[in-house]
UniProtKB/TrEMBL annotation:
<comment type="similarity">
    <text>In the C-terminal section; belongs to the class-I pyridoxal-phosphate-dependent aminotransferase family.</text>
</comment>
<keyword id="KW-0032">Aminotransferase</keyword>
<dbReference type="InterPro" id="IPR015424">
    <property type="entry name" value="PyrdxlP-dep_Trfase"/>
</dbReference>
<dbReference type="InterPro" id="IPR015421">
    <property type="entry name" value="PyrdxlP-dep_Trfase_major"/>
</dbReference>
<dbReference type="InterPro" id="IPR036390">
    <property type="entry name" value="WH_DNA-bd_sf"/>
</dbReference>
<feature type="domain" description="HTH gntR-type">
    <location>
        <begin position="27"/>
        <end position="95"/>
    </location>
</feature>
<keyword id="KW-0238">DNA-binding</keyword>
<keyword id="KW-0663">Pyridoxal phosphate</keyword>
<dbReference type="InterPro" id="IPR051446">
    <property type="entry name" value="HTH_trans_reg/aminotransferase"/>
</dbReference>
<protein>
    <submittedName>
        <fullName>PLP-dependent aminotransferase family protein</fullName>
    </submittedName>
</protein>
<dbReference type="InterPro" id="IPR000524">
    <property type="entry name" value="Tscrpt_reg_HTH_GntR"/>
</dbReference>
<keyword id="KW-0805">Transcription regulation</keyword>
<dbReference type="InterPro" id="IPR004839">
    <property type="entry name" value="Aminotransferase_I/II_large"/>
</dbReference>
<dbReference type="InterPro" id="IPR036388">
    <property type="entry name" value="WH-like_DNA-bd_sf"/>
</dbReference>
<dbReference type="Pfam" id="PF00392">
    <property type="entry name" value="GntR"/>
</dbReference>
<keyword id="KW-0808">Transferase</keyword>
<keyword id="KW-0804">Transcription</keyword>
Length: 480
């Protein structure tokens, strides 16, 4: 790499501002500093191609010894996040190479961590993303939709295709939440739903409380509107305590939660815990945004949405058909009070005028078989979850694995080492997993990985075999 001009050098103060709370957590100061810097690079606060400050300058700014900074730089280099050369300093490696245009790149730092190879090239096994294939029913189901709705219409329904809005409303009513089509906005997937809510609710600097860890797309959506993201720690104290404490101290405008089949942990809140979340939000006048994207993938059946037991207009609910049916539909929704739906609908019109009309009509047809298709998908996922747990126990028995209550992922803790480094080594071995810092608003959980189990059993077996090879390289180094 050609070294950068002096104008592309981060000052020690600039780097320090991205490392708030870096000394919290476990491990040596070197490990904690390296993890915090890797997270800042992943968040884009420290840009690829720029040089980091000299060790002595950063050590003085952080009030630590120079050896601490030198050790952190060496650890980042070992993870291929930075480059170092005598006389040229330390720089952040470029984030992309020429083949990245087909791929979604996540992870930490300048090293490319591919989690979605839509072209299916290079034999990579993707256990980071969760992309269920379309159900076989799609090929054989009778088409009863009235195509005149499409042929005789412009195809633009800013709030959504009316029959689909009614069908989604019926789903909510079946789960105990009175809903009409006027309470529903159809979106192009749950990601657009979250982004619309973030744009409508937040102004720069507004506080939004988000579980830590959480869905990476939600972190991105709220950061995109310059909201101040307040992490709710879910690993050191009970999550309900975290909600109450964060809302009390941050005066958060909104609380983004997944109470049913949490991504990535797979946990579910009890009924009493849900009531405590609602009480805490009500006490601090905080609007709840509940993401139910995985809610119907529970093994025991989904409880009612929070909006069914919360005061009116205190909850906005997000849902999707991507994980039950097929992500290619790009069908999601927002359920909220009608004035909120009207505002979000006007905003969506600015973004894309309307979601795809054929996809919406196809979604109506699939919803006619919803119970059957949901049961088939849950049965399939439950079997594959069991397969993945068995594979992890066989090949990676020293890991601590949280058994999910449903959904698409296993959340696993490493006994030592860096999940970011494991993801890099995994990519080199032809398998992608999501390192924990990608799920954290503050770059924590570098001792965790999220592993998807949507793939076929044979593919899961090969993927875990590759991951185990990557892990052995790291484990053996720690054993020396």
């Amino acid at each position: 790499m050609t070294t950068n001009p002096d104008s592309l050098v981060f000052s020690a103060d600039e780097v320090t501002r991205t490392l708030d709370g870096w000394q919290d957590g476990e491990g040596s100061l070197v490990e904690r500093l390296a993890i915090a810097m890797a997270a800042a690079i992943r968040r884009g606060e420290l840009s690829a191609g720029w040089r980091l400050p000299p060790e002595r300058d950063l050590a003085a700014a952080l009030a630590v010894g120079r050896n601490t900074v030198a050790g952190a730089y060496r650890k980042l280099k070992a993870m291929s996040i930075v480059g170092r050369r005598q006389g040229s300093g330390t720089w952040i490696e470029p984030a992309f190479d020429g083949g990245a245009s087909r791929e979604q790149v996540v992870g930490v730092g300048g090293h490319k961590l591919t989690v979605l190879d839509v072209a299916g090239e290079r034999g990579r096994i993707d256990l980071a993303a969760a992309l269920p294939t379309a159900p076989p029913t799609l090929d054989t189901m009778p088409w009863t939709g009235d195509t005149r709705d499409l042929v005789g219409h412009t195809g633009y329904w800013p709030l959504g295709y009316p029959p689909l809005r009614r069908a989604v409303a019926a789903l909510f009513r079946r789960r105990g939440l009175p809903t009409t089509e006027n309470d529903v906005l159809i979106t192009s997937g749950a990601q657009q739903a979250i982004a619309l809510i973030a744009f409508e609710l937040c102004r720069p600097g507004d506080a939004v409380a988000i579980e830590d860890p959480t869905f990476p797309g939600a972190i991105d959506a709220f950061r995109r509107v310059d909201a101040r993201v307040v992490p709710l720690s879910m690993d050191t104290v009970g999550p309900v305590d975290s909600y109450a404490a964060a809302l009390r101290s941050a005066q958060a405008r909104a609380l983004y939660v997944m109470t049913t089949v949490h991504n990535p942990t797979g946990r579910m809140l009890t009924h009493e815990q849900r009531l405590e979340v609602i009480r805490a939000a009500r006490q601090h006048s905080t609007l709840i945004v509940e993401d139910e994207t995985l809610a119907e993938l529970t093994y025991a059946g989904a409880p009612p949405p929070l909006a069914a037991i919360a005061p009116p207009r205190s909850v906005i609910t997000v849902g999707s058909l991507s994980k039950i049916y097929w992500g290619g539909l790009r069908i999601g929704w927002i359920r909220a009070a009608q004035p909120v739906i009207d505002r979000l609908g006007r905003l969506k019109t600015i973004w894309d005028l309307s979601s795809s009309a054929p996809s919406q009509q196809l979604a109506v047809e699939l919803l006619k078989q919803h119970d059957k298709l949901r049961q088939q998908r849950v049965s399939e996922l439950r079997s594959r979850s069991a397969t993945l747990l068995e594979l992890l126990a066989e090949h990676l028995g020293d890991w601590h694995v949280t058994e999910p209550r449903g959904g698409l992922f296993v959340w696993a803790r490493l006994p030592h080492g860096s999940a970011t480094e494991l993801a890099v080594r995994g990519a080199e071995n032809g398998v992608a997993v999501l390192p924990g810092p990608a799920t954290s608003p503050v770059g924590r959980f570098d001792d965790h990985v999220r592993i998807s189990f949507v793939r076929e059993p044979d593919t899961l077996a090969e993927g875990i075999s590759r991951l185990a090879r990557a892990w052995r390289d790291i484990r053996d180094r720690y054993a020396k």
